[in-house]
Amino acid sequence: MNVPVAISGGGIIGNYISLRLKRNNIDSLIIEKSDYMPDMSEGIRTLTLNNHSMSLLKAEGIDIESAPINEINALDGEGTGKIQFLADDINESYLSHVVMFNDLKNRLTELCKDKTLFNNEINSIQKFNSEDTSEAILGDGDSLHAQIIAGCDGRNSNIAKITGLPNEYYEYKQTAITFIGHVTNNDNSLIAHQAFSEKGIFALMPMPNKGSKKNRHTIVWSIDNSILQNISPTEYVKNNLSFFESKLNIKIEVNSEILNFKLSNHHFKNYIKDSVVLIGDAAHSIHPLAGQGINLGLADADIFCEELIDAYNKGFKINNKAILKKYEIRRKGMNLLMLKSMDFFVDFFSSKNLYIILLRNFGLNSVNKTKFLKAFFMRHASGLNKF
Ligand SMILES: Cc1cc2nc3c(=O)[nH]c(=O)nc-3n(C[C@H](O)[C@H](O)[C@H](O)COP(=O)(O)OP(=O)(O)OC[C@H]3O[C@@H](n4cnc5c(N)ncnc54)[C@H](O)[C@@H]3O)c2cc1C
Known about the structure:
The chain is α+β, with helices and mostly antiparallel strands. The strands form 3 sheets. Strands 5, 6, 12, 13, 14, 15, 16, 17 and 20 form a 9-stranded mixed β-sheet that branches. The chain is built from 9 helices and 20 strands.
């Protein structure tokens, strides 16, 4: 088999790249480890897509049900610090949109299924050669020649392991709990809330209504592992939900199973090795605090496609080293900035030091009064700052 671009991993990022390249006359083949078995249940997982991600997906004809957010209120649960982000402040109608993970994944998988080898994976890459093609040996023994191999196979990327590129990995020593909650006495369903406290970082966002199911919200709650040593996540939710209910002045009824997962981040020092390129979670992962994981991945995919399509239209080789390097240069700084900012917020808001508690209350209230600073944060998180 011979194909210009081989994509390892048919997740949201791999599928998006395949669609965008196809629309621009560049052929690709996705190699996906799992079966073609869309999970048709609604699921619990949601994704918060920023405006840039929404417009990228729309350009590929992806239009799924979403819950828009036009205001984010962040508050310090231990004090009086508050900050309010409004879409109006950056002249946008919305700051972000919450979608169901399964809705987006299924829609993309369906559109790409004819260009996907399911139940297969790349086991080894025989030749790294930037001017020619690389040969990938697949799990079923077949071989595949491609000018570019794109690693879109998620945070435990096998392609990244094959390249041997150096990786920085960090455990937050926190667990994220996520569930769906039915919220009452909530006046405005376009608002997302975030509260930082010793009891964890608590985020509450509106979610798609799905027919008659109204007033549902998605909750992502990050808790120190030390707290969960002697209590199950479900018990912890039962005992501590009322704290955030009174802080936010709402009532929440747990409406789904309670999922939990350990939190860590990673970042590869380089995203390319010869003609192998790491994209999305394969290259980096981030704390879910600001719901930026998928947005960083889609921003990577956007720049990767932009560079490739530009080279193709100008008649250059798409695996030219300078072209691939441009992708890395344009994305690495932006990803690191977001990653390090999240680490700073996690440390700053986890601190029990009295001076830091005072400083963050003062800081939040001061930033809240500084429109240009807030606009900078919002534009960055909305994906509107593109290099
Ligand atoms: C519970 C949870 C909540 C989250 N919430 C948010 C949120 O609100 N907002 C946000 O922006 N981000 C969120 N994220 C992060 C977001 O889900 C990821 O950033 C995003 O899914 C990454 O997409 P991806 O396509 O790069 O990788 P993945 O979604 O991991 O997809 C990788 C694909 O590769 C396949 N694969 C794996 N190994 C191989 C292999 N060896 N060969 C071939 N195929 C392989 C997998 O089967 C999968 O289809 C959340 C993550 C979790 C776990």
